[in-house]
Design brief:
Elements lengths: L1 H14 L2 H28 L2 H14 L6 H16 L4 H35 L12
Helix pairs in contact: 1-5, 2-3, 2-4
Length: 134
């Protein structure tokens, strides 16, 4: 349990860093914030097209399959690298988190592939041979 706590603490220190929060805010403005600003301006100036465009995009964001959260995070990391290249502590933590995530993803992929192979070998080659007539 202590290992999980230390990992959570390391991730929180990386993500709650003021430099990363600034970059995340800028990334959020690039992916989502413009629609909220456009909606506010459209309401203020009574511009129907602004309200329509921003509302449609905001409605799209509520779909479960939208990649905007991942894109926001990638933009934040990109901005962190460009705006604060000397912030070695945060960049090193992000690199370690990335390596850990890739390693775990590969492990899950290998488990899935082994399961698929075992599933294929467990199934009979002729689909109708296991059925009883009638």
């Amino acid at each position: 349990m202590a290992d999980v706590g230390s990992k959570l603490r390391a991730a929180a220190e990386c993500i709650l860093n003021p430099r990363f929060l600034l970059c995340f805010g800028l990334g959020w403005l690039c992916t989502n914030g413009w629609s909220y600003i456009l909606f506010g301006l459209g309401t203020l100036f009574r511009a129907g097209w602004m309200i329509a465009v921003s509302s449609a995009y905001m409605a799209f964001l509520w779909f479960p399959c939208t990649p905007e959260k991942l894109i926001t995070l990638l933009i934040a990391i990109f901005l962190l690298r460009k705006l604060f290249p000397r912030d070695r502590r945060t960049l090193t933590r992000l690199k370690l988190l990335r390596r850990t995530a890739l390693r775990k993803w590969r492990e899950q992929k290998e488990k899935w592939q082994k399961w698929r192979i075992s599933r294929k070998t467990a199934l009979p080659s002729d689909k109708h041979s296991s059925r009883k007539p009638g």
